[in-house]
Fold:
Amino acid sequence: MTSSLFQAADMQSNAPRPLADQLRPQTLDEIAGQDHLVGEGGQLSRMLEAQRLSSLIFWGTPGCGKTTIARILADHTDFHFEQLSAIFSGVGDLKKVFEAARLRREQGQGTLLFVDEIHRFNKSQQDAFLPVMEDGTIILIGATTENPSFELNAALLSRCQVMVLKRLDDEALEKLLERAEKEIGRVLSLTKEARETLKILADGDGRYLLTMVEQLVGIGEDLDVKALSEILQKRAPVYDKKDDSHYNLISALHKSVRGSDVDAALYWFARMLSGGEDPKYLARRFTRMAVEDIGMADPQALVQCESAWKTYERLGSPEGELALAQALIYLATAPKSNAGYMAYKQAMSAAKKTGSLTPPAHILNAPTSMMKDLGYGAGYQYDPDTVDGFSGQNYFPDDMTRTNFYNPVERGFEREVKKRLDYWMKLRSQKNL
Structure:
């Protein structure tokens, strides 16, 4: 009965395997796109030459070869290979694997345990690895698409070496395509432009590239870009608003604005929107850029951001995104200054250090006769009534030395502000204040 069900499901041992599985590399030399690790002088190559394999964390995008490299390492070192997925496994599964590894160790064989999506394990599950790693029961290789610094315990990270795998570039994807064509026995029927589009659709994911190739096998005529797009469903960009890619892209966007590269800023803006980012989050971030990186060099930047935010809320998507794009262009092309931001930080630091010093008496209101008798308001000068419109009086606490927090730059509107401050400083000096 079991056999007939197995056959009915077409799961016999000789059933067709996915192309990605058929082309899974068997040696490090066959790994595409990771020469910095497996090429001559690479970190993993040196480990294997020295026969000293330690616990590792592979950090990289989907389809870059994390699982394949782990299998090859086990084969090259005669370790027994065990594989778990943190999505489907719990502490009970780990205990079974650890017990089997201990028995294996008593018989003289080591165990290489590969854990896919290791960041999915919680703290207690991650802690379970520590004793068996320390006594050599297992060599752990964990794979993650998330930043290990944020997702893995410090204790676990301290016992592993993190290796970063690169997303597959055009050269690596072309190498995979050629291997696939050799495997299927013919060249894909694609125009040059369609072949390039196929690699772009893969978005650095070798496994996905080979999945698409399987859909194209058997098509006789040459496919152009339009025909290719009709056969293959466009893949959504690898982007999660809660994971590391979110922070990478917003960092790229913010730094492009700060660097006055309007074209790069628009590109990262589009990448985030196409990945499903909330436009309101971007509106908030733009407003932050206006006050943090532009400030008084162009005070209108803040007004532009607030206006674009309000416009988006009124229009919604997709028309509202155009208002945000306009604000982004304004930010990227505006003069930059963080003088206001730095002045704020220095003033906050001074406020914390000086505690509860009171204002000087001459700038205190005196609503009662007792306050007047105490000198409140005595000697205060009303600046608009002075000859220069500037009295130059002291407004710091009497027990605090006058401090210069704000130093405007010679750019944009702040150039005019600097002229005013320099003029008032000159008047203050002339009045010996």
